[in-house]
Amino acid sequence: MAKIIAVCNQKGGVGKTTTSINLASCLSAAERKTLIVDMDPQSNATTGLGYDKNDIEYSIYDVLTERTVESKSIQLSDIIIKSDSIDYLYLVPSSPDLAGAEIELVNVIAREKKLEKALATAREEFDYIIIDSPPSLGLLTVNILTAADSVLIPIQCEYYALEGLAELLNTVRLVQKNLNSKLVIEGALLTMYDGRLNLSKQVADDVRSCFSGRVFDVVITRNVKLSESPSFGKPIILYDIMSSGAENYLNLAKEIMQNE
Amino acid sequence: MAKIIAVCNQKGGVGKTTTSINLASCLSAAERKTLIVDMDPQSNATTGLGYDKNDIEYSIYDVLTERTVESKSIQLSDIIIKSDSIDYLYLVPSSPDLAGAEIELVNVIAREKKLEKALATAREEFDYIIIDSPPSLGLLTVNILTAADSVLIPIQCEYYALEGLAELLNTVRLVQKNLNSKLVIEGALLTMYDGRLNLSKQVADDVRSCFSGRVFDVVITRNVKLSESPSFGKPIILYDIMSSGAENYLNLAKEIMQNE
Ligand SMILES: Nc1ncnc2c1ncn2[C@@H]1O[C@H](COP(=O)(O)OP(=O)(O)OP(=O)(O)O)[C@@H](O)[C@H]1O
Ligand SMILES: Nc1ncnc2c1ncn2[C@@H]1O[C@H](COP(=O)(O)OP(=O)(O)OP(=O)(O)O)[C@@H](O)[C@H]1O
Ligand SMILES: [Mg+2]
Ligand SMILES: [Mg+2]
To answer: Which secondary-structure segment (H or E) carries B23?
Structure first.
């Protein structure tokens, strides 16, 4: 039975995709069968792993909107891609069409539970399912939180990143109350930390003192190797295993596996 | 007759809010009467100028959804705030309610033209109107592009920032064809450039060689003062006029004013 972890934060550019790709690949390196689900219309998790979003024939969009081809609806198993570079790592790709899903699903029955339903079969096959979210609190993110067991919140060590936390926790509470009572907070992950900057230290202190849940021991420091690796279509452990980025995400995977 | 500039890019964290606040305040410093419209439910432009989003009674959300109070609908003039720190600078605040507007407007007639209609009166009173956008290509962004004369595209000097450009230009073309034929591209603005990193140089070269429109001469370099200033509720020219961030945004304002 897989553990489903949603990586969410409506603030843009805080490290959701970087965390999803690198946490998942570190879990796979530890021989946990891991599935990354790219739920962002930008498809950054798909391209960050080296796939061309324009080559993807069917994506999570087609499964959520129950698209049929030759009178058979597209299943999750039809679109899962096995990574050609890391064993135990699989991907459910996204596509720009997903941007339309929010409006297309508005009047559909049980619109919030589409992803939960789509992932039901995958739960039996994988140890971990990591879901990368778009930077918004719309229907896609509600679907993600409804399907997940827990939510991992990347928090960039910058001022605006703290601002949005209350709204996100509000949405989590609403989902816990109305759609998914088992949803818990996996933890807050400090990202892009730069020890030379007072701002980084100040935000990290603020998060540790006022975040109501767990804050991961590991802090992801700012590391240019992390921002170079997607342009080579590789997770950090394949691009530069000796980098601080690789060390940080391996430590994050260890913290997550402690709960097994 | 105001010039309305939309600051758009669906990629998160590329510097849309930082550019909106600081371009607008530099234009105001040059005695152009300037209005910032915060169209992001995160309300970062509102808080970055020192206003508490929870203190805001009515916001752009109430104008777009034509909310009425004592049988009178809320007008833009009812919600405009004059900056208490910079002359000639005004703000239309946002609120978290705006996140619901996309779904609420789905079945409304002329849903894409709500902002254009709301800004019609303000066009006569201001020299510039700068609109900060959310990180998505939904109905809010379509409203923004429909209301605007031109679109300024901040591009972070990172790999994922280039990935999303094609989708954004697609949306701009669709709006030009169906909703706003006068919309032009103001230019691409390179942000968070770090001269020590090959990645920054590579992305900057790629943008200059393959972006079809104008690329601003000024490049906004990575500068911690820019990320500190919102925590003091001040634009960069009030927080640290001697910083590279202040110099960069003053130069951007000069480039924009050249078209007057
Ligand atoms: N620790 C880090 N050090 C340096 N750069 C980083 C780090 N983490 C992420 N980045 C870079 O910062 C940018 C933003 O990260 P990323 O795209 O993962 O954020 P996101 O939250 O997924 O963004 P969006 O809101 O658009 O989905 C990317 O260019 C990424 O390569
Ligand atoms: N030139 C710069 N140098 C250093 N930090 C910067 C610079 N520009 C922006 N920042 C910081 O980077 C972060 C992202 O910028 P900002 O919030 O303006 O982006 P955005 O595109 O508006 O994000 P969103 O997609 O969430 O709306 C902020 O914390 C901001 O303070
Ligand atoms: Mg992302
Ligand atoms: Mg913003």
So the answer is: helix B16-29
**pLDDT given for residue B32 in this prediction:** 98
Q: How far apart are CA B52 and CA B93, in angstroms?
A: 10
Structure tokens at B12: 């998160």
> Position of tokens 């007057």?
B260
Residue in chain B lying closest to A42 (CA): B164
Helix segments in chain A, DSSP class H: 16-29, 44-48, 60-64, 76-79, 98-104, 114-119, 122-125, 139-147, 159-163, 165-178, 198-210, 224-228, 236-239, 244-257
Q: Over the stretch A173-231, which tens digit does the pLDDT of each residue have?
A: 999 999 999 999 999 999 999 999 999 999 999 999 999 899 999 999 999 999 999 99
Pairing assessment for the beta strands B81-82 and B89-92 based on DSSP bridges: antiparallel
Pairwise CA distance, residues B190 & B232, whole Å: 25
Judge: A13–B10 Cβ closer than 8 Å, yes or no.
Answer: no
Q: Given pLDDT bands bounded at 50, 70 and 90, which one contains residue B54?
A: confident
Binding site membership of B234 for ligand 2 (Cβ less than 6 Å): no
Q: How confident is the model at residue B128 (pLDDT cuts 50, 70, 90)?
A: very high
| pLDDT score of B103 more than 90 | no
The reply to whether B230 touches chain A by the CB within 8 Å rule is: yes
Cβ–Cβ below 8 Å for B103 and A139: yes
Q: Are A2 and A129 in contact (CB under 8 A)?
A: yes
Question: What DSSP state is assigned to residue B197?
Answer: -
Q: Is the CB of B219 under 6 A from ligand 2?
A: no
Enumerate the residues of chain A whose CB falls inside 8 A of the CB of residue B14: 12-13
- Positions in chain A whose pLDDT score sits under 50: none
Question: What's the DSSP call for residue B148?
Answer: -
Q: What angle do CA A187, B94, A44 make, to 5 degrees?
A: 45
End-to-end distance of chain A based on CA atoms, in angstroms? 11
Interface of A with B in 60-119 (CB under 8 A): 96, 99, 102-103, 106
Structure tokens at A82: 């096995």
**How much is the pLDDT for B97?**
92
Can you give the length of chain A in residues?
A: 260
> Looking at this protein, which amino acid is placed at residue B189?
L
Which residue has 């709301």 as its token pair?
B118
What's the pLDDT score for residue A163? 85
> Which distant-in-sequence residues (6+ apart) come within 8 Å of A119 by Cβ?
A4, A37, A76, A129, A147
Q: For a substitution probing ligand 1, which of A7, A17, A224 has the most ligand atoms within 8 Å of its CB?
A: A17
